[in-house]
Each structure stands twice: as C-alpha cells, then as structure tokens.
Amino acid sequence: MEITSAEFVISNTDVKKCPPGIFPEYAFIGRSNVGKSSLINMMTGRKGLAMTSATPGKTMLINHFLINKSWYIVDLPGYGYARRGQKGKSQIQRIIEDYILEREQMTNLFVLIDSRLDPQVIDIEFMGWLGEHGIPFSIVFTKGDKLKGGRLNSNIQQYLKKLKEQWEELPPYFVTSSENRMGKKELLDYIESINKELNTK
Q: Which end of the chain is more exposed for a tag (fewer CB within 10 A), N or C?
C-alpha cells in the first residue's frame, strides 16, 4: 500500500471528541522516547507530521492523522515517563485507557518496543492488561538499525521468549527503523490486509 495523503485532523484529551465516522483507527503507543513520532513520520513519508521532541513525554494528547482519506493513524500519549508528577501520570493513564477501552473505531493497537533494551516490566504489564481486556494489538520493535549483526535477532527472540511465559499465542510483530525505513512495507501491508477484511464484512 502507498500512502498518498496524510493530514493532521485533531488533538484532544477526551475520547468523546475524537473524529466521528466509521474509518478504522490504528493507534500507536509506547514508552516515552521509543521513537513513536519518528515511526509515524517514516510510515507516512512526511517528516514533520508527528512532532518529534528531544524531551520525552511531550505527547499528552490523542492525535488523529487521516491517511488516504480512508483510515486513521492515532498517536497516543507515551506512558511511564518518570519525571512527570503523579497527577500528570494518572491523567495520561486515563486518556490512554479511555481511548483503548471506549473507542469502537480502534481496529489495532501497535505497541512500540525499543529493540535495544531487555524486556521492561512496564511494557510486559501493559500488554498483559491489553490481553485481559481483549484488545487486538501488535508489537513494533523500533530502532532496528541500531543493533549490528545477530544482536537484533537475538534481542527480539529473547523478548518473544519472555512473552511466551504469559502468552500461549504471540501477537504479530514487526521490526522497524525510522532511519532506513525497515519494516515500513510490512506494517502498511498488514494495515491494508485488515482494511480489506473490514471492507468484506
């Protein structure tokens, strides 16, 4: 699938103010600094579409981008940024939970994981919470260009092994790099296949 148009539509903190209509939404979430904005910009081929920030945790809003006038990329706030106060953290958590649990148009949630890191408790717990609520999600390993040789593959296998302690069946996963566009085609093809399935229902 080619992305021919991508436009910013709205930012808000209230799921009830998200765009009306029935277009499918593909939401992206991850810990602060996992490379979410860069990934969205890479996927859409538009450098400044999602704001990238040197300060982690800047996104405190639900951001909707209309793609090809037929589906949305949704940029959700990053979770687990340590320097934010408790009030800010619980506000972000509420925004995330409200969107994930209440937004009927949300078709799939992409959980972003930094491929360089060992499995982080916060990510494992978050995916467990998604599983408990029956939320369809996929894993996107980011920064795949940062590891050389077999390190990337062994890191990912280690991660999947950790997940298998909790999950009988693993969710789909993708390995990406915003620097060299690794994984772009696979992600877009996956979204396209879901969109086609929805259209036949």
A: C
